[in-house]
Amino acid sequence: MVKFLVRLFYLPTFLIVGNGLAVLIVQSGYSKGWLFLLVMSFIALAFLLERLVPYDAAFNKSYGDRTRDFYHFIVNETANVAGVLSVPLLAAFISLPSIWPHFLPLWQQLVLAILIADVGITLAHFASHRIEALWRLHAVHHSVKRMYGFNGLMKHPLHQFIETAAGATPLLLMGVSQEVFSLLIVAVILQLLLQHSNVAYFSGPLKYLLAINVVHRFHHLKTAEEGDVNFGLFTSLTDFFLGTAYYDKRRVIASDDLGIGDQPNYPKSYLSQLLQPFRN
């Protein structure tokens, strides 16, 4: 019964409850430190429930990658916080009049920001599979040999900057507030936890709209022929436009199916992964 409830409520808990609590924290004027505690609580929850209701129990076993993934998390999320703090400074250099609908309730502004950012991030992701210089950076993320929530946050910091810029620039030009950007960062983290999750949660028809784990696993297949699909972060809407949306309910994906086919020995340590894109 407990496992059934986890599978039933995992997706709405992260998608609705997590973002709803973040909106409540910001809307009530509480310290942004509460957002950090919220994120850490959901990371801990992901670790716990992945062991209770795993898609693949083997994905819970470390490949000597836990410390490395922690370094990725610390560096990348510190960069995100710095980015949010710099919003007023960046906005000062933009002389365009604000066209952002500040009059909308905060949760509606967040939904709108997610939809707009999702297009830019998805297109940057798509380009990263076609432009060699971008792929070298993005390959760090594709080197994973297991899918669990926390390594959804594993990215080369330069590639994260590129994707973030692609998603955030339209919002900056529109005049989005610092508060909405803060909520967007939380939404991205929660989504990455969902997207890489090793929890066998129910998704129903939402799998054809949302870029969640059952569809994102296909993107991490180790051959370009199979993995060149499902580039979306939040939704599959841009993938439908690009013709890259794909799902096969019969396919079971295991560790041997993941990684980079022509680079099976991709470096595992954090510093090696930072340097690998710049090596011949």
What does it look like?
- The chain has helices at 2-27, 33-52, 66-85, 87-92, 106-128, 132-142, 157-174, 178-195, 213-219, 224-227, 237-242, 270-275.
- It is an all-alpha fold and 280 residues long.
- The protein has one domain (2-278).
- Helix 3 runs antiparallel to helix 8 and helix 5 packs across helix 7 (157-174).
- It is globular.
Task: For the structure shown, list the relevant keywords.
mainly alpha, single chain, 280 residues
Low-confidence stretches: none
Characterize the largest beta sheet: strand count, sense, and whether it forms a barrel: none
Global mean pLDDT:
95
What's the tally of helices? 12
Q: Could you estimate the helical fraction of the residues in percent?
A: 55-70%
Can you count the beta strands?
A: 0
Would you list the SSEs in sequence order as H and E? Answer: HHHHHHHHHHHH
Task: Give the tally of structural domains.
Answer: 1
What is the alpha-carbon Rg in Å?
Answer: 18 Å
Distance between the termini: 53 Å
User: Which structural class is indicated by helix and strand composition?
Assistant: mainly alpha
Write the layout of secondary structure elements.
Blueprint: H1 2-27, H2 33-52, H3 66-85, H4 87-92, H5 106-128, H6 132-142, H7 157-174, H8 178-195, H9 213-219, H10 224-227, H11 237-242, H12 270-275
Helix pairs in contact: 1-2, 1-8, 2-8, 3-8, 5-7, 5-8
Put the structure in a nutshell.
This protein is mainly alpha-helical and 280 residues long.
